[in-house]
Amino acid sequence: MKQYLDIASEVQEALNKGIPVVALESTIISHGMPYPQNVETAVRVEQTIRENGAVPATIAIIGGRLKAGCSREEIEYLGKMGQTITKASRRDLPVLVARKEDGATTVTTTMMIAAMAGIKVFATGGIGGVHRGAAVTMDISADLEELAQTQVMVICAGAKSILDLGLTLEYLETKGVPVIGYGTEELPAFYTRHSGFKVDYRIDSPEELAAAFKVKTDLGLRGGMLVTNPIPEEYSMPAEVINKAIDAAIEESERLGIHGKQCTPFLLAKVKELTGGESLTANIELVLNNARLAAKTALALTKL
């Protein structure tokens, strides 16, 4: 497996020395934000991780190579190429690698490549989940299946409000994935701190997060752990504002027949348009907030 994997020298050295490492996805760069904010945010996120005592490892597929740690030039490339780069999930890896093509990694593929490299903690924006209307469309993100089988802690701001949050939680429960609220008993919903749904457990410190994940690993329990970290209060958007924008975006996507992997980028761009760019600011701040917590948790994990 590692014949296809390139681990950046800084990342490999950190892993060898027991220095904490935090994985980062690349779909947020190529598909989640416009250029140049995508590159600026990616650089800020990496710097935030360093400031909190860990080494960042931005993950992507470039020229058919699985990258655990991207250079500044590679991040710039991903940002400029944008949505022309394939949004790569588990099903896409064999063909992209065989063809020596590029891929921006989703939560799913970032977890996979992080696990191959030996990275245990991953910070992202929000996870995919069960889409509204999934009872008819069967549109369920591969992120949930990956959380059920790959031993990586995923720190996010919850699931995006474009999803059916209740069914997403039910799916994760069925798969045995613990859903943790960091400092909260309520599932955050990406742009907003409130969803009305409860998490499995509330945990209030990086040290306790690390301890719970270590026990899970020591017991040989398959799958990851989902930590939901609410967006900072000052950047949280009112639920009624964001939900109104989301409902309008979903209605338009259905009218245009947009589905599958094109759905989320379309909805995020439409929500940004409908909120006058406020959602983009919220998106950036929640990712930085998750990076801080991930670095502190990865540091705590190295001390156990």
Mean pLDDT: 92
Order of helices and strands: EHEHHEEHEHEHEHHEHEEHEHHH
Structural class: alpha/beta
Could you give a short account of the major beta sheet? Answer: 11 strands, mixed
Helix content: 40-55%
Low-confidence stretches: none
Straight-line distance between termini: 28 Å
Anisotropy-based shape: globular
- Strand proportion, as a percent range, falls in 5-15%
Number of helices: 13
Count of individual beta strands? 11
Radius of gyration: 18 Å
Describe it:
- The structure is a single chain.
- The mean pLDDT is 92.
- The protein has helices at residues 9-17, 27-30, 37-51, 72-81, 93-98, 107-117, 134-137, 142-149, 165-174, 206-218, 239-256, 263-274, 278-302; strands at residues 5-7, 21-24, 55-62, 65-68, 86-88, 103-105, 121-123, 153-156, 179-182, 201-203, 225-228.
- Helix content is 48%, strand content 14%.
- The protein has 13 helices and 11 strands.
- The protein has 304 residues and is of the alpha/beta class.
- Strands 1, 2, 3, 4, 5, 6, 7, 8, 9, 10 and 11 form an 11-stranded mixed sheet that branches.
Keywords:
48% helix, alpha/beta, 304 residues
In a nutshell, what does this entry contain?
Helix content is 48%, strand content 14%.
Secondary-structure blueprint:
Layout: E1 5-7, H1 9-17, E2 21-24, H2 27-30, H3 37-51, E3 55-62, E4 65-68, H4 72-81, E5 86-88, H5 93-98, E6 103-105, H6 107-117, E7 121-123, H7 134-137, H8 142-149, E8 153-156, H9 165-174, E9 179-182, E10 201-203, H10 206-218, E11 225-228, H11 239-256, H12 263-274, H13 278-302
Parallel strand pairs: 1-4, 2-3, 2-7, 5-6, 7-8, 8-11, 9-10, 9-11
Antiparallel strand pairs: 3-4, 3-6
Helix pairs in contact: 3-4, 3-13, 6-8, 10-13, 11-12
